[in-house]
Write a structure and sequence with these properties.
The protein has 202 residues and is an alpha+beta fold. 34% of the residues lie in helices and 32% in strands. The strands form 2 sheets. Strands 1-10-4-3-2 form a 5-stranded antiparallel beta sheet. Strands 7-6-5-8-9 form a 5-stranded mixed beta sheet, sandwiched between helices. This is Actinobacteria/chloroflexi VLRF1 release factor domain-containing protein.
Length: 202
């Protein structure tokens, strides 16, 4: 089921809107999440970011207050066209790098020219991943907290295969982003900090 990412500052309003749209909702804390069940059969399950379990009051304000970022954590976004990496202290960027690399698109040519093109494209992609891994190793070295990843799954896997990154604690949340730019990185950081809400509207 798709997840809606709700900033902690907007969770109370989101739950109020759900409540008013569906004729009232009963809230409960179940399995480390806040669940709301409405009279019309609609429901939602809200979970804290970074895989943290929620065990306080069945109240959206209390849950919003519990959505505290780790002391130190990271973000790594990779696609064939570029990468973005950031080390954060709480919700502040301590260090970051955004880079673009040209990787040719696919060609319709056939035969040997297509094979040469594919080899060149693979080489360009490999060089882009190596650059991303170099910067990730430098910026993320020694972080104790989780690493949130996104972009292209195979590209991220290529970068994380670098032995220098083997000790990182990769978070379960995946961010499907476009080619990383500074604005994309900033949005990804906000998404990583948001409360994840599964919702079913009857």
């Amino acid at each position: 089921m798709p997840e809606v990412l709700v900033p902690a500052s907007r969770l109370v309003r989101w739950v109020d809107n759900f409540d008013s749209r569906h004729g009232g909702a009963t809230l409960a804390v179940i399995d480390g999440a806040l669940r709301g069940d409405a009279a019309d059969g609609s429901w939602f399950v809200a979970r804290l970011p970074f895989g943290e379990a929620y065990d306080a009051a069945a109240d959206p304000g209390a849950m919003a207050a519990a959505a505290v970022p780790p002391e130190e954590w990271g973000v790594l976004l990779v696609r064939k066209g570029g990468f973005a990496v950031a080390r954060l202290v709480r919700d502040q960027v301590a260090e970051s790098k955004v880079g673009q690399r040209h990787v040719q698109g696919r060609t319709k040519a056939g035969g040997q020219s297509q094979q040469r093109f594919a080899r060149r494209r693979d080489n360009q992609a490999r060089q882009a991943y190596e650059a991303a891994a170099d910067h990730a190793a430098r910026i993320l070295s020694g972080i104790a907290g989780p690493l949130v990843t996104g972009g292209d799954r195979s590209a991220v896997a290529e970068v994380l295969a670098d032995p220098r990154l083997s000790g990182l604690d990769v978070d379960g949340r995946w961010l499907p982003v476009t080619d990383p730019r500074r604005a994309v990185l900033d949005q990804a950081i906000g998404d990583a900090l948001a409360i994840g809400v599964e919702v079913e509207n009857a």
